[in-house]
Amino acid sequence: MLASSVYGKGSSGADGYCASWNGTVNAIETLLPKRSGLLLALDELSQANDARTISSTIMAIGNGASKGRLTKEAKERGTKTFRTAVLFISERTPAKELERLSKGGNAQLDAGHEVRLPFIRVSEFPNAQGCFHNTQGKAAAEFAGMVKTAAVEYYGAAGRKWLEYLVANRPNIAEQVKGYAKAWLEQYTGNRKLGAQQMRVANNFALVAAAGELATAAGITGWKAGAAAKDAGVMFNHYLDDRGETEVSETKKILDAVRNTLFTQQGRFQKANQASKIPHNRLGFIECEGYLNNGLDSDDWDDADADADADDDDDAPKLAGEIRYFIPNAKSLEELAQGFDAQMIAKTLAEAGVLECPPKGNRHQLVVRPNKTKRIFAGMPSTGFRCYVIRGDKLIS
User: 232: domain range?
Assistant: First the structure.
């Protein structure tokens, strides 16, 4: 509402500047080129009708182009391009909202979505009440009414002044923006080794900071010099706190999903070394204490298809605190992180140091030989079977 009032009437009605998620993908996509170079403010994300609206809209925003379509005569209609800044609010993250709207409840936003439209948890900011941090001595309800009224009665002045300034100073604007953006990037990313996805988001924050500082220098905002850059930096830091500085989106999602599944579905894991009843829909086995040498004799690793003999070590010491999950097949592994294939899950877990792998080659599965390590894995061959061995204690840390 407030953001919309910069360019137009701060409401989402027929004559308002604020748009709504409560529409089709095509409706929002049609609006994006019309707001190119300006702001498209969308209302509460929970107004979206379906998961596809959220997913497709976010991709369209980042792609900067509408879908190619045909006319009634089967001729190419032409693709519209745009560069539109989009702002929306939500009590839930887009990923949670997408999950809520999807039929199976397991829809996900991929890395492309998250980079195109990053979500910032403003509730974690200092003074997270925003303008309500200082209500000018009035009660919150009264102050909210004043702001709402002002947004629909006095609007558009700042946006018009901004456009007039850009047109009047067009020859110098590009260099000024580059200068502000470069300074911001040096301050907030210079001492960090950020991943490619994080740097893409950083570049967008730098552009926002540059625009804010330029508008301040033009006498439009009434802010102090440096305020826009500082606030953009605060938001970017919170984004990194939530997202991580180098971790790619898929890595974080896989680790979070595996961690959540392992520790919320304990009933689907049978305790190793116990001839207990096999749980319904078993995912694998859990062992809370293991041998020092990863619970497996070094000769029990199936490095190729060669069979090796190993000496039992009855006196192998044990370490408390080690938790191992034995996942017997790829299908079970994929249940730990739905939406990802077993190879990607295993690779991610191995790179994170939580998957025990053979010392040679690039395999992700070990061969466990219960008859040689004196283990009991009910229902599994005692002579040996392949499985993924996940260190739960390392996953926690």
Answer: 172-246
